[in-house]
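Long-time lurker. I teach an intro course on protein structure, and each term I like to show students one example going from raw sequence to a predicted 3D structure in token notation. This year I'd like something fresh instead of my usual example. Would anyone be willing to generate the tokens for the chain below so I can use it in lecture? Attribution to the forum is fine with me.
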Amino acid sequence: MKITSTSIAMAFFLISNMSFAQKKYNYVPITQTDSPSEIIKKAANVVPTPRQLEWQKKELLAFIHFGVNTFTNKEWGDGTEKETIFNPQKFDADQWARTIKEAGFKEIILTCKHHDGFCLWPTKTTEHSVKNSPWKDGKGDIVKEVSDACKKYGIAFGVYLSPWDRNSKYYGTDQYNDFFVKQLIELLTNYGNISEVWFDGAYGEGPNGKKRLYDFIRWYKIIRKLQPNAVIANMGPDARWVGNEGGQGRITEWSVLPNDNMNQELITANSQHDVLYKPLGDLCDQDLGSRSIINKAKGLVWYPAETNTSIRQGWFYHPEEDNRVKSSEELMNRYITSVGMNGTFLLNMPPTPDGLIHENDVKSLLGFKTLRDQTFKVNLAHGATVKCSNGKNMNLILDGKYNTYFTTKNQDTTTVIELTLPSVRTFNLLSVQECITVGQRVEEFRLDYLKENGQWETITSGTTIGYKRLLKFNAITAKKVRLSITRSRLNPTISEIGLYKMPNI
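-- Reply from a regular --
Happy to contribute to a lecture. Here you go:
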């Protein structure tokens, strides 16, 4: 047989396609000939991009709603507000960043422009900005000061830029997308590294009575070019809104979702391009990624949940809410229902008209940090003897390193991991993490403990794990526990197991 360059290329193509389902990829097509088992293999090998992984590992993100609404005591401005109303005389970006850093948050996302169109930086695109306010005689730049404070305290900086602009004369016309792009470029080029760009889907009619169709794809391309490490969230391709503003994730939260508007031309067997569109569909359903859902999909993509809420009832500051700030205990519970349900926790902290985070909010935030420290200071499973009849790398589930993991031998999709603790210990919180750099795979699990009579009894159970799953239960005192993975998409990969004693809240 004569070997030619064509035959070599053909052999490489066939080998590549034969092993395609075993490769790691951020998104993948589903063909009409794929069997349910082949779809599961593909789903089990969808993984986050580096930017998505780093975003998920941050866990705690701070939202800052600040602007003319802070001074009008409104949630949504109409764009007719006078620039002279904006004058935060005690504004202190250091206080914001310092408080947020001390509370253990890893990022600030600033509302650089809300729906009213008022810009917190001296933009060249409109007169409706801080440059025409009395604050610092029009020479100030809120965005710069917050960006600089984030750098000083070692936290990431993200921007929110409202697509809806109730002040701009261009809104509702073809010129608006060019206007918006100019604002976006200013934010992406003048303030250093941007870790997240946050869009929402709010829109209305312009002066001409028409609603604006946003050119999101164009915006995404600009972000990828100017800030390639930035996560594009909510109305974006990297992270999705969880579907409510209560800080509540799903009982079953998949990060691998259908991607039925996938551009097939971008996909090859040997390379992956950046996703430049938001997956379509109803992303507020309780079931987004089960087997029955993905079996009907045209493609699959890694699209994790960002779970948001405000520390107050409103998103902007309102003085009547000073005594209705969420308590440290409430925030701890929201941490469990967000980060602990395979999401990130985006918590809004609206500054006062003085330009400071209110003392009641600060107290709650720092108390939240204390509760987390008290809870997670000691993993009561550390030092345990680990047994598993079909496991590999068993001790890696207790090494405190996220990127190492336990898995099963051969092609086993179920397993029982038994932990014998160094002594009898009391705990009321389970933490389990999958190594999502391999994929999200676990579909069902449970935790049992060995009673004094020698019988095993179930403490708690769950479905998906993902980056992190936290399950709270009544306190148990035991020396032996076991984690059973009863259903998984291919071999489960467990990064860490933790048992903790959470204060009674």
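Some talking points for your students: Residues 1-21, 265-271 have pLDDT under 50 and may be disordered. The longest helix spans residues 359-376.
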